[in-house]
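Hi team,

Filling in the usual template for the complex we talked about on Friday. All components are listed, including any nucleic acid strands or ligand strings, so the model treats them as one assembly.

SUBMITTER: L.P.
PURPOSE: interface mapping
COMPONENTS: four
RESIDUES: 414
SEQUENCES:
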Amino acid sequence: MSGLRAQKKADKNRRILEAATTLFRKVGYDSARIEDIAEMAGVSVGTFYNYFKNKGDMLMATVSMEVEEVLAAGDAIIAREHEDVATALSELIGKYYDHSLTYLSKEMWRTAMSLSIAQPETPFSQRYTALDHRLSKQVCDLIRALQDRGVVRKDVDCDATGELVFNNVNMMFIEFVKDEEMDVDGLKASVARQNAPLASLMSVKTD
Amino acid sequence: MSGLRAQKKADKNRRILEAATTLFRKVGYDSARIEDIAEMAGVSVGTFYNYFKNKGDMLMATVSMEVEEVLAAGDAIIAREHEDVATALSELIGKYYDHSLTYLSKEMWRTAMSLSIAQPETPFSQRYTALDHRLSKQVCDLIRALQDRGVVRKDVDCDATGELVFNNVNMMFIEFVKDEEMDVDGLKASVARQNAPLASLMSVKTD
DNA sequence: CTCAAAAAATGAACGCGTTCAATATTTTTT
DNA sequence: AAAAAATATTGAACGCGTTCATTTTTTGAG
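RESULT (copied from the run log):
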C-alpha cells in the first residue's frame, strides 16, 4: 500500500500545525519552543524541520488564512453602492481592522511583520508581501469603483490614491500592533481622520 | 585620580561602537558576531554587555545619528519658499531618502525596523518610534508652512494630511529596504506619483 | 602605603533555533 | 519474501546572543 506514507505525512502535518497554533495562542510566539511544539505533536524536533522550513513558516499559514478571508469580505463591500468616499473607505478599512485579530494576536502580527522585513528573501516574506499587494490593489479597486459610479472625480489617479491610502492603513496597523493599549476603534478613528481631507477633496461636489 | 575610570570607560565605549559599525558595514549586521565585535574592540564579550544592553542597541546609535541629521536638513527645507505642493513634498521626502543610506545599509535598516516592531516595549523600539513621530511631525510642519504662505488651501487639515503622506513615505521606505534591487530614484518617483493627486487637489488653484 | 569596599571585566555556561549524520521505516525490485 | 533503494525520523551537536558567578582593577579612607 503506497498510501501509508502519504497519510502519515498529512496527519503529522496537521498535528504539528495544530500544536503550534495552540501553543502560540497559549504562551505566545516567542515562548513557544520548537521542542514543545514537536513534543505536543508527538514528533521529534528534527521531524518538525522536515515539515516546516522554520518557526516563522508556521505563522504564514495563519496570516494567509486571515488575509484571504478579509480579501473576500472586501470584494463584497466594493460590490455594494456607497454614499460618499469617506464612508466607503471607512467600511473597507474597518473590515480589515475588525477582522485582524480573529486568528492572530498582536504579538503574532508583530512577529510576522518583523520577519517579513528582516528576511525579505525568504518565501515567508515574499508571501507576506504578495498578500499586502493584493490588499493595496483592493483599495485601488474600491476607489476606481467609486469613480466609475461618479462618486470620485474623473481626474483622480485611482491607483496612486489607493496606494497612498493603503500604505497609511498599513503603517497605522503597525502602530496598532506595537501598542497593546490601542484598540480597534481608536485605530479606525485615527485613520478616518487622516483620510478625511483626501476623501473630501477627491469627491465630486454635490451642491 | 578619579578620572582614570571614567576615561577608560569612554574609551571603551568608543572602541566598541567603532568596532561594531565597522563590522556591520563590512560583513552585515547578522554576520557580525558579538564575539568579533568584542575582540576587535579589545574587550571581552561580557564587557560588551556592560556597555550595551544588547546587539540591537548598537544600531540605535547609528539610526539616531542618521535621523537627527535629516531632521535638521528638513527644517532648512521648510524654511525656504516653494513653488507648489508637489515640489515642496518631493524636496523634503527626497532629502529623507537621499540621506538614508549615509550611515546605514539596507540590511541595517531592516534590522532596526524589524526590532522596533518585534519588541515595542524595549527602549530601542521606543526611541525608534519617537524619531518616526518627529519625522511625521516635520511633514505636517511643511504642509502648514505651505498653507500659511497661501500655497495650500485653507480648509485642509494639515496634520491629517501630513500623517497620511508620511506614513506612505515610511511604508514605501520599508519596501525600498526590503528590495535590494530598488534604487533611491525609483523610490522617489513612486512616492511622487502617489503624492501627485493629493498635492494637486490640496493646492490653491492659480488660474 | 595598606586594605576593604566599589566598580568593572571576564569567559564559561545557558537557551533556543537550526542542522545533519546515523538510524529506522516504507516502498520497490528481483 | 528477501534485498536494495528511497524516504522519513531522530536527537545530539552547533552557532550565536545573552547571563552571571568569579576574578581583577580602581578608589579613597585611615
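MY TAKE: The first helix of chain B runs from residue 3 to 27. The two ends of chain B are 75 Å apart (CA to CA).

Thanks, L.
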